[in-house]
Amino acid sequence: MAPKTKDRILATSLRLFNENGYDAVTTAKISEEVGISEGNLWYHFRTKRDLVSAHQLSLFVLIDKRLAIPSSPETVLENYALFNRMVFEEVWNYQYLYRDQAEYGRASPELEDRVHQIYEMTTNMVIRFFRHMIEAGHLDLPEDELAPLADNIWMVIRYWPSFLRETRRVVKLDKAALNAGIRHHFALFETHLTREARGYFDKNAYA
Amino acid sequence: MAPKTKDRILATSLRLFNENGYDAVTTAKISEEVGISEGNLWYHFRTKRDLVSAHQLSLFVLIDKRLAIPSSPETVLENYALFNRMVFEEVWNYQYLYRDQAEYGRASPELEDRVHQIYEMTTNMVIRFFRHMIEAGHLDLPEDELAPLADNIWMVIRYWPSFLRETRRVVKLDKAALNAGIRHHFALFETHLTREARGYFDKNAYA
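Above: the input entities. Below: the structure tokens describing the complete assembly.
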């Protein structure tokens, strides 16, 4: 079954906003790329701002999924690899929501609180993963290094699309761009991993 | 001698843009904070966009200064500490120029090329510093780790103000915010430094 028009509008507008910036993409351009009339687009979404709300909802569903990834000392390597891939893809696929906030409008206090909460939960999750790696003997790192490491990890993940755009003019996500981000992120702590753990990530963490 | 009106306008508008965002700051607000009439402001700068150009010029002067910091294996620790402090302050003090580009207008191709060149020169400079640290025996790191490390360092420096704003709601630069950034940046490679080199940076790299 072909995807529904509504889903095609969402996917196409997301891609266009990510690649060209929210302000630069018109509803005429979106309709054209989807292959429908502007009237048909308006039937599904009254304004460009409605598309933002729909994208935010999808993003929050993804975030809830990856925040629910479990961890234990026994399963930490596979769960961390899964978490890491999901979060890189999530940030890349919804990059305009982070990047173009000034263009599509300042967020409500409720949304800001939610975003703030997501940052905190993500940081705590990363720290929990690292504690489990230490407990399982995969990682050798003192406790007071974990908080700055978690912040640095979030910075590399969160700003990877902006960094590639600004320094390398890369605007499309492909395997090479995603894997380079994962590589830069592992550079933050791989010298503290056992050879076995490093081998596991080399084999299983990349696209 | 009191600072000239023009300089006061530049300093005040820079602070207001950084803290509140380019779009949110009116010329009325700038005049009020400087304590002059809007007519007097217009006499010096016809539009808000003219302030952007003036800030860009000052930023480029700073960048040229820190790109000219020399390095040799003998002087690498003091020169790296100096470079590092300068670049953190530069990125923080001109943060709106990076952050609000969509608000004040897309850059010209010439400016984009210049910015791109600055990124490249900065990365090369950081790699050169690390090579000198290795040569002088301060740092133990294989050659193929240098490029991702230099990228990660630039990411922490470049996005530190955005990161603090988004995750901690910090909008003003004070010693604590600056030093926390420097600390996060050292966390990227300090375990590869000799104890002596680490001790040098602990004593000399912070504000």
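Note for the figure: Chain B has two domains: 1-46, 55-204.
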